[in-house]
Protein: Protein CBG06535
Amino acid sequence: MSEYFKNMTVLFGGLLVENTNFENISFFPKSQENGIYVRNNSKLTDYKFLTQMFMYSDKNLKECDFQVVDNKKLNAESLCGSGLLHYFTDLRVKGNLKDCGCQGDEIDDSTLSTYKTCQNSYNGLYLNNVTSKDFSSLENIMQVKGIIDISDTDIENLSFLKNLVTFNYRNQGTKERISFNLQNNPKMTRFGMPVLSVIHNTEVERTDGPEEGIVLFNFENLHPDFCLTVNEILLFLELNVTFRNLNAKVCDVSQEILNDPSICTFETLEKLHEKCIFVIGDVIIDSENEHDIVNVGNVYYIFGSLTIKNTKLKSLAYFFNLLAIVHLGDGPVIQLISNKELKDVKFDNLRSIITSGHRQAFIQDNHPDIFKSSGGNCIISDPENIYIAYRTRLNFTGTDCDGSRIEEQAETGAVTGQPEQQPAETDNLCVLNSFAALQRIVFLHVPSVRPIFSGTYLSVIISFCWASIIYAHFISFYKCESSLGATKICEHFPDIAFLMIYRFSLCMLNFLTAYFYYSIHKTIFTFSSCAVTIIHNIIPSEPIEEFLGDISCYYLVFFTPIFPAVISISYISSMSHLKSLVSRIMRHN
Structure:
């Protein structure tokens, strides 16, 4: 049959396959075009039918093609913001009677001058390998919808985007996706976008207050003197921007310090005055100045690192106004060393930590109960808000967190030890979703039980919930002592869609990486310490009871298919209760 259909590209009408002996219908060729195409319709004047269509992206979050092109009587000026189309950023609308904007991904040296009248750029704004020195033709752009990517140019700053107010990007689900990329621009010394004030994720319905979500920028391989002003950094903090890499310095603030008493450089803790809100420099608190700790009470932002060592402090509650730490130098952003009485290390209002790329914290030789209140998990910010947890995520090292002893260099205060392992470019937020949600639920409802997940385990439970839509996690809270073997599981079950785990002895969950939708909700994967059993359609009592053994501390945590937020948690009191809950999930899905 494949021979008969090999040249088919379009099927008009319906498809009926019945009363055959076909084992599959894979003889139909795969379409090379996936999306909506409205092209070269000489009499078309109405586009309303398009505004009610919703297109699902692929597993890499690439939007389906949407093209409305060369329809000479179609006024598409308002098309791109109408109906469901307001969600999408990669809309190709051109060559019609009127279009809704210009195409920001078609700019090169030959087309640059044609953008003089462009106010709204769709498909992002891409300036890649453009050699022109004059970008004044882009100065009327007021809105960009899509990714901004400026790379491999000799651009010195972005002041030519002097009217760009609104940047709309699309980040579906919780996947890390760079929405603003400045990379390999060796002459770029300043950011310089004077009126940018709105950064909006089209997937989020905006309400009053700061917009939550993941806003990931990457500023990398720019001029060694590239710097951001205090106001630019504050804008990024206000708009909840975080960075994959930030190769930058803080611009000279000497003039601001003279004119604004709220900005000051850190000299000593004693000299921090009550009007000092922005502290520039590395803040060091030790046994000689800890008596002046109350002076940090008015500090909202630290532009540098924070080191607290050899003190008798019992709590860090003095930092009750601290909102953000921005550390663009080398070394750990936070160091807590040899504070023998320190038991409370939570920064209650901390919302963001921005670093140049190394998100390291060094915590060692403090009170043995330093993280007792968080169940032994290295946590310094609010774990209940998954986005704050993402923006303040750190790689914790030192005896109080990962158990490894790291030597401190006397002169510099830097630490040496095992090379820092950077998080892989995977769904870190999704890991944090699971961690924060589990921790919150367990802490609230099951105070006697503590989850094993902590900052030190996050590097090995990569893509914990992003894995191909896990409808439920069935978890027993036991320490990880041995690994089932990620390679072995990956060989046989690379596409896991419904997961149950009990007798938790897996040390590696990084085999859970696929992301797709398919109907497998009647298949349940059960893991024990030494075997994998697949049970279809029903749940026989023998295998379940065999795996349960004498362990009774099980909790079923439900996650939605699209966004991994916890809906509820149920204590498994008996075998019949377990069967009832699982049956309910299967019917629901």
Confidence is low (pLDDT under 50) at residues 409-413, 417-575, 581-589.
